[in-house]
């Protein structure tokens, strides 16, 4: 068992202050009561950690102290995270894979309420967040079509909705059709807000689960080549993923898309500023033969408005099929944020390199980890 896993296990039995009223007003790390089992350890401490639950001595310190407050009040964009924080979140996520039914930790969020406010349709994201909360013993307040069936339909502002809902819950998961909506919500709320997708902006929890999946499937994050395929202009998943992959060394990104949905300049400029190599290509077969990951995305009809001629121009141009699989390396994988339509042929599902359903399952563990660290700390 790693140090972080052991400490995570210990922390299941520790009461940590709820940040609902204080997290955004204070950077302090507080515990409701003293921890009788383990002494707190500084982030940079190099000496041995002594955990007195069994007088077990461990050689190295964890990335973050148990009970220490998560350094972010909200999860709004991928740029928030550095490598150290990503590694710590992934360690917690790995521990979450062991939580089932009445296993230790399955009640760690008992008494907490999560509100899911979804102004756009969602299946995987909403259900995985709700499943994550319930697997940790918490409860859920949900609306799956807030744009149409909430007070927003009466003209209520997002800010007023957030001010109201935070009175009912301990954390808000928001999906919205406007880029920047999550940042507005976070600026209003006194409880944590998680961005579950804001229009064509970002989807940070998806990017976290994507990077987590790549590490588990490929075995590394440094030195990889990733092909981003499909709707790169409107795809919040690929935008967030590009930001996170920029944290790793010797990564190269290939952009493969129809001309009408090419990757926007802000991402290209960010990657260049971070020394990340990127290349645009129109040849999916060539890119697939080089890459460790082919990350396919759906052409998003809903983002085209009345310009359906442009949608038809983009649709069906790049499809992952058996021909693409034949040129891919044996260790490489195909990923997709789902839902997928005709951009991946059905028989690809049977290939062991099709990782997208495993990817979706990993979303549960990442979201369990985010809820844990936002509400209880490390």
TrEMBL record:
Compartment(s) where it occurs, according to its Swiss-Prot or TrEMBL record: Plastid, Chloroplast
Cellular component GO terms, alphabetical: chloroplast
Catalytic activity, as annotated: carbamoyl phosphate + L-aspartate = N-carbamoyl-L-aspartate + phosphate + H(+)
Pathway noted in the entry: Pyrimidine metabolism; UMP biosynthesis via de novo pathway; (S)-dihydroorotate from bicarbonate: step 2/3
Main location: plastid
Pfam families: OTCace, OTCace_N
Entry superkingdom: Eukaryota
Domain Aspartate/ornithine carbamoyltransferase Asp/Orn-binding, residue spans: 222-373
GO biological process, one term: 'de novo' pyrimidine nucleobase biosynthetic process
Domain Aspartate/ornithine carbamoyltransferase carbamoyl-P binding positions: 74-215
Enzyme class name: transferase
Membership in a protein family: Belongs to the aspartate/ornithine carbamoyltransferase superfamily. ATCase family.
Protein name (record): aspartate carbamoyltransferase
Species assigned in the record: Vicia faba
């Amino acid at each position: 068992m790693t140090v972080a896993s052991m400490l995570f296990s210990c922390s299941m039995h520790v009461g940590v202050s709820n940040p609902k009223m204080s997290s955004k007003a204070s950077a302090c790390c507080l515990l409701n009561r003293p921890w009788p089992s383990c002494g707190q350890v500084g982030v940079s401490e190099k000496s041995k950690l002594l955990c007195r639950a069994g007088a077990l001595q461990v050689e190295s310190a964890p990335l973050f102290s148990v009970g220490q407050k998560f350094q972010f009040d909200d999860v709004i964009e991928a740029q928030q995270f550095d490598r150290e924080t990503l590694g710590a979140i992934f360690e917690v996520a790995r521990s979450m894979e062991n939580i089932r039914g009445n296993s230790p930790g399955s009640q760690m969020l008992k008494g907490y309420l999560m509100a899911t406010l979804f102004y756009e349709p969602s299946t995987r994201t909403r259900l995985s967040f709700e499943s994550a909360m319930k697997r940790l013993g918490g409860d859920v307040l949900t609306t799956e079509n807030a744009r149409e069936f909430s007070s927003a339909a009466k003209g209520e502002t997002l800010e007023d909705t957030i001010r109201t809902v935070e009175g009912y819950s301990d954390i808000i998961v928001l999906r919205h059709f406007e880029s920047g909506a999550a940042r507005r919500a976070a600026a209003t709320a006194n409880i944590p807000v998680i961005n579950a997708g804001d229009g064509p902006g970002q989807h940070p929890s998806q990017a976290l689960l994507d990077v987590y999946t790549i590490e588990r499937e490929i075995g590394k994050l440094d030195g990889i080549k990733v092909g981003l395929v499909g709707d790169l202009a409107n795809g919040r998943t690929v935008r967030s993923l590009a930001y996170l992959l920029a944290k790793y060394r010797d990564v190269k990104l290939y952009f493969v898309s129809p001309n009408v949905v090419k990757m926007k300049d802000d991402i290209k400029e960010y990657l260049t500023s971070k020394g990340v190599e990127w290349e645009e290509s129109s040849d999916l077969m060539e890119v697939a033969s080089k890459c460790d990951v082919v990350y396919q995305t759906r052409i998003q009809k809903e983002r085209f408005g009345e310009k359906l001629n442009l949608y038809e121009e983009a649709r069906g141009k790049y499809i992952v099929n058996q021909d693409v699989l034949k040129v891919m390396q044996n260790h490489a994988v195909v990923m997709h944020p789902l839902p997928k339509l005709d951009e991946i042929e059905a028989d690809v599902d049977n290939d062991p390199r099709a990782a997208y359903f495993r990817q979706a399952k990993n979303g549960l563990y990442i979201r369990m980890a985010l809820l844990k660290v936002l509400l209880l700390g490390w």
